[in-house]
Design brief:
Elements lengths: L6 H20 L22 E5 L10 E2 L12 E5 L6 E6 L7 E4 L6 E4 L9 E5 L12 E4 L9 H10 L8 E4 L5 E3 L5 E4 L8 E7 L4 E8 L21 E7 L3
Length: 251
């Protein structure tokens, strides 16, 4: 062995260094998912997974099933859970109105796919990947802004929303403060402002009206940023039958 680096290996190392430089220059910090290059491990199919949480009024208690009726409509609080992999965070948002099915377009390809709409009480609850499809930023850098907070967004986004609202009234938006990508969570997390070229993938939820419980069933849409597929690129959550939801403080 001469110690010379194989050309393919050299190219790989250059790519890693380049991506690291981009992240540093952009000042992305810990709001970026560190999975731009991920191992191809994971699952062979999507598990049906019950959403659990730790009741803050009972700090020493074990997690219990999260009830759909517990979600406050259009709240600035961020609800996060991981599914189906341990590096795939997802939002849950509840609206004041029923969320209808629609078609969502991937700007990068022009391809459209069906968004199935809301579930739960009044079909008002939706769930999306919490990884920005531009460069992988995660909460709290990317989060949901209810209608009352839309005016606090950057002026260029507010200007776009004024025009957008003339034909598609928003019910709050998901905005990423890394580079300004904005999504419409009431309409399948379609793109409102770039630089993202892909909508946020959505999680199909199952609602049990008898128990008021919610289950995650699968991801649909563009592949979650940084993953070879939605089932590979990370480790499965520790208990495929349950995943714990965390409520972050309102921004």
């Amino acid at each position: 062995m001469t110690g010379e680096v194989d050309p393919s290996r050299r190219g790989f190392l250059k790519a890693v260094v380049g991506l690291s430089a981009v992240a540093a220059v952009g000042g992305l910090g810990k709001g970026v998912v560190q999975n731009l290059i991920t191992p191809s491990v994971g699952l062979t199919s999507f598990p049906e997974t019950l959403l659990y949480w730790n009741d803050p009024s009972l700090p020493s208690s074990a997690p219990v099933p999260l009830k759909a009726s517990q979600f406050e409509a259009e709240s600035p609080s961020v609800w996060i859970y991981y599914y189906p992999l341990s590096d795939e965070p997802n939002f849950i948002i509840r609206f004041k109105e029923s969320v209808p099915p629609t078609k969502v377009t991937i700007d990068a390809t022009g391809v459209s796919y069906p968004f199935t709409g809301g579930v739960g009480p009044g079909n008002s609850i939706v769930s999306y990947s919490a990884i920005c499809q531009h460069l992988g930023c995660i909460p709290p850098v990317i989060h949901y802004y209810p209608p009352s907070q839309e005016s606090t967004l950057p002026s260029n986004v507010v200007s776009v929303l004024k025009t957008y609202n003339q034909t598609k009234p928003t019910h709050g938006v998901v905005h990423c403060n890394c580079h300004g990508s904005t999504y419409d969570p009431f309409r399948g997390a379609g793109i409102i402002t770039h630089p993202t070229q892909s909508p946020l993938p959505f999680v199909t939820l199952k609602y049990d009206p008898l128990t008021d419980n919610l289950y995650a069933k699968k991801l649909t849409g563009p592949v979650v940023f940084g993953h070879p597929s939605d089932l590979t690129g990370g480790n499965a959550i520790s208990n495929l039958g349950k995943t714990t939801v965390t409520k972050l403080a309102a921004s």
